[in-house]
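Handoff note, outgoing to incoming analyst
You'll be picking up this chain. Sequence as last confirmed:
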Amino acid sequence: MAQSPLTSEMDESRLPQNEFDGACQILKEYHRTLVQQLAEEIIQKGDYFTLLPLSDADDLIERYSWRFSRLSTVYTNLARFVPSEKPRGGEPLGREDFRCFSCGGVIKRDDMDCNLCGWTWK
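Most recent structure output, in case you need it:
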């Protein structure tokens, strides 16, 4: 049986809790892609934001604003059905340690991500 694209790239600790959680994870990745596209387009069309008239800049912002608004509405409705549960930490934190927001593991000060589940600050 083939794995879905969502589960093939995740370790087991990051698998969706249910279909709503899975959909939210996919939408988070879509949001990240959309933000990257917006940033690239703003850089490519930087003149839109410095030269008059600014109608081209307004059009660009309006186009993305509409997409972000729709995405936010869909995400909010799905997220209401994702069970929220604080991660349980088993290991006590040291003076300069942080608790992972995803699995509750310990992230050392110099670590870029959680060693248990891969959660990152970015």
